[in-house]
Design a protein that fits this description.
By secondary structure, this protein is mostly beta strands. It folds into three domains: 139 residues, Mannose-Binding Protein A, Chain A; 51 residues, Complement Module, domain 1, CATH 2.10.70; 51 residues, Complement Module, domain 1 (Ribbon). Strands 1, 2, 3, 4, 5, 6, 7 and 8 form an eight-stranded mixed beta sheet that branches. The protein has a three-stranded antiparallel beta sheet with strand order 9-10-12, with no helix packed on it. Strand 1 and strand 2 form a beta hairpin. The chain starts with 6 loop residues before the first strand and ends with a strand.
Length: 267
Amino acid sequence: MIGLWFLSVLTYRLMVLEEGNCWTYHYSEKNMTYKLAEKWCRKHYTNMVAIQNKKEIAHLNAFLPFSPTYYWIGIRKIDNEWTWVGTRKRLTEEAKNWAPGEPNNRKNDEDCVEIYIKRDKDAGKWNDERCSKQKVALCYTVVTCDQLKEPDQGTLECSHPLQNYSYNSSCKVQCAEGYESTGFEPVWCTSSGNWSAPTPACRVVQCDGLNAPAHGSLTCSPAFGNLLWNSTCEFACEAGFVLKGSDRLQCGASGKWDGEQPECEST
């Protein structure tokens, strides 16, 4: 069994600006078959490296050490189509980076892909190979942020394009009836592994203050403090005046009173 002591960690952290992804690279010091390499990457990291663009290939070729067996990457033939193993998406024409004359399927079962790192010829290019061959496992780990806690009187609605609470994940707060969020923009997991802002809280809705009508009085419950959700205010008029409108208003869940403020008219 391959233990963590075999790990050699590439400390270079790359942010691919064109794709908006951020991760760290890792590789094994022990060679293994493609099947074991894929299992190993998933166990210890996120998955096998999925090449995004030529810029990323240049970084890999610059920072990875040379290995005479080269490196397995996350592409293999599935249902006779070259496929990214992590996403199960077909390899597009624009993403292909084969060495000249490859893939050639010389052995008739070359269904896995290696990348030439620091090779004298075709450095950074791909070659189809038999999956049973032993090569270095090349893995990546997506930068992650701490899992967020739901606020009191609220829930979180999150989107995870890569994996849970990882780079580019976003969360917004949905508050219970009668409560509103202290922040209206989603928070994002950034490339530093920190959230873009603190998680918003849910505060109880507050209605605007009311005034006693001319020749009348106003009594609110609670009598002191802010007029929060479900607060009520009652109106009365002096002798010789009659109330035009409702004699009682309540602060609604939207922060609005459930009616117009009444007036006192002379009889």
